Structure to design on (126 residues):
């Protein structure tokens, strides 16, 4: 929201935007104050990975934090873990306002194909 206020430079009286001069002192100069109000939200997400021997594909990955859930158009809290060494995939997505679980997935990584993280992996093999 933008708000503009006009003041006379000569006497400081608040004046109408369309007035040519100040009614109080007759000055033609004006000072304009513009106020802009915006709401800003911040969201953060941490991610990391561990490579076995320091090279190649990561043996483990994680992402934890805020995530925009496009299906419902809301910001959620997401925890996603991929562990190739132990063949595990887990993901929990919760509504940030209510705490309600939107998605819960815990399965062997080898069975997690064709969606989300697995889309990239699935398309490379086929």
């Amino acid at each position: 929201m933008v708000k503009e206020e006009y003041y006379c430079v000569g006497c400081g009286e608040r004046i109408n935007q369309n007035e040519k001069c100040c009614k109080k002192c007759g000055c033609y100069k004006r000072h304009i104050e513009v106020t802009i109000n915006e709401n800003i939200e911040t969201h953060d997400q941490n991610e990391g990975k561990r490579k076995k021997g320091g090279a190649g594909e990561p043996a483990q990955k994680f992402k934890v934090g805020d995530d925009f859930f496009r299906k419902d158009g809301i910001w959620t809290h997401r925890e996603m873990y991929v562990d190739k060494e132990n063949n595990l995939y887990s993901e929990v997505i919760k509504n940030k306002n209510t705490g309600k679980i939107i998605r819960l997935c815990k399965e062997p990584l080898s069975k997690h194909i064709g969606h989300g993280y697995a889309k990239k992996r699935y398309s490379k093999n086929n």
